[in-house]
Amino acid sequence: MIDTKIYKYESPFKLENGEWLPELELAYTTYGTLNADKSNVVWVCHAFTGNANPSDWWSGLIGDRRRFNPEEYFIVCVNVPGSHYGSTNALSVNPQTGSPYFHDFPFLTIRDVIESFILLRKHLEINSIAYLLGGSLGGQQALEWAVMEPEVIEKCILFSTNAIHSPWGVAFNESQRMAIENDPTWLEKSPKAGLEGMKVARAIALLSYRNYQTYNRTQSRDEGQIDFFRANTYQNYQGEKIKRRFNAFSYWTLSKMFDSHDVGRNRGGVSEALKLVKAKTLVIGISSDILFPPIEQSKIAEGITDAKFLEIDSTYGHDGFLIEFESMAKAIAAWEKEL
Where on this chain does substrate bind (predicted)? Predict the structure, then answer.
């Protein structure tokens, strides 16, 4: 049974840029039972617009009869602060003003996220994490955590992520924020502000999540067709879908969080930071990923002592880490046999 809870940190929470949140709430789920010596913790970090229930979006890896089975493991996943699904975000009420933060919500980095997760870890009296998993934005979180608390993380599995967000990735995110900014409603103090712009932002993002081959296969056009293409419908559908389930403030916050990622910041650079990781580490890339190309995962593995890199051949692009469950489970099993 999945248990959803709220952890409330009632003291001011200092952010990396020097700003403060007056208080902090984290929405999180647990799945399974913590064993007597608390050695069976699997902590999952979700991606960009994901939520705190990994069985929703990683059902091929997490759940009954899956690689990470709640009958065996105690699975924890937290909604990232700034996100839409229960943790403190721009639509939350600022206790100092009595009104939602809206555009005044502070800038959060990946490092801020992990500082908040550490607070929850200590609250739950968890001293070690058997497996730390994350893909994309979640992978950035997991890697940052493995650097910050090397004695706590035993095994770390990273999917389709990087050690520092690339200029290419920043450019995609900035293009999406430009779409939101150009929505005339964006400056309004309303939960609905910027939603039309966010629809366009999501359409831009999809081009980086998939690729030329994927669109040719899934959104193919009929011979002789001159208008009303499948690709038209698909882009609009995905925009409407995100509009129904998310808000533009969170989208903006998390896109900036993406850009902030740099495990080498104030640590002497990426290479020096990766040397701090003590967890047994597996890094998985997707061959056709154009947003987080496999070379980025390869570089992570090269920098971490005894880490292994494995590339999965897939045409699904960046979204492959949310689709290629069978290949990923096999890769994990093979890696574990080598440990």
Answer: 202, 319
Spot the catalytic one: 183, 259, 262, 289. Answer: 289
**Residue 212 CA: distances (Å) to CA of 25, 215, 238, 323:** 41, 5, 17, 17
- Please say if 318 is a catalytic residue: yes
Secondary-structure breakdown of the chain: helix, strand, coil percentages, each rounded to the nearest 5: 40, 20, 40
290-302: burial string, b at 16+ Cβ within 10 Å, e else: bbbbbebbebbbe
Cα 178 to chain centroid, rounded: 21
- What is the maximum alpha-carbon separation in the chain? 66
Cα–Cα distance for residue pair 52/22, rounded to 1 Å: 23
Concatenated DSSP letters for 4-53?
EEEEEE-S-EE-TTS-EES-EEEEEEEES---TTS--EEEEE--TT--S-
Residue 202 known to bind ligand: yes
Distance separating the N- and C-terminal Cα atoms of the chain: 31
3-class DSSP state for residue 173?
Answer: helix
At 34-90, the pLDDT tens digits run 999 999 999 999 999 999 999 999 999 999 999 999 999 999 999 999 999 999 999
Q: Which two tokens stand for residue 150?
A: 């090397």
**Mean pLDDT to the nearest integer, 12-30:** 97
Interval 156-196: pLDDT, tens: 999 999 999 999 999 999 999 999 999 999 999 999 999 99
- Rounded to 5°, the CA angle 144-146-147 comes to 65
- Which of the following is catalytic: 55, 87, 136, 160? 136
Confirm whether residue 3 is marked as ligand binding. no
- Structural domains of the chain sorted by starting position, each given as residue range(s) with its CATH number in brackets: 2-165+261-338 (3.40.50.1820), 169-258 (1.10.1740.110)
